[in-house]
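Observation: inputs received (chain + zinc ion).
Thought: call the complex predictor directly.
Action: predict_structure
Action Input:
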Amino acid sequence: MKVDLHCHSNVSDGVLPPALVAAHARQGGVDVWALTDHDEVGGTAAARAAAREQGMRFVAGVEISITWGGETVHIVGLQIDEDDPALVQGLAATRSGRDARGRETLQQGVLFDEFKQLGGAAIEVVTGSHTPDQYPVYAQLANAYGFLASRGTDFHAPGEARVDFAALPPLPGNVTPVWHDWF
Ligand SMILES: [Zn+2]
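Observation:
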């Protein structure tokens, strides 16, 4: 089962509309797919319909930009309810930049500790944003901090991603996938 839980459409900074991202993912052999546009859930309905048409299982998602310890951190939300009023309102606030706060620089360990305390469940281990030699490093971090592991291309446009849908390797065997109890 090929799972890709990190992609962008032209609803945020991707190039293709959600339906074409779905078709591209399917061509790359993806079976379980999430559209995770930046601070936007406007493409969810189209993505869900396209996934169904392509025979993929769909996971509703969003990638939220936050300022945390003076740095911008991207949190991928999965299995979300895109109609949830608090989420919709929060995303609108994020888009208008009203969430900016925090000055001190956090170390990665502190960030992971805080993320865990706030209910963070997983970190990305195999992703187009990591180099292959970082996969085992993030697998080890996931296990050390008790996080589940996620996987996704961070696709924005055909030919642009460092790794395309078909080329991204599976999660290493020593981690627990974030989707382990979803289906
Ligand atoms: Zn992304």
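Thought: report the result.
Final Answer: The longest helix spans residues 44-54. Residues 90 and 96 are 10 Å apart (CA to CA).
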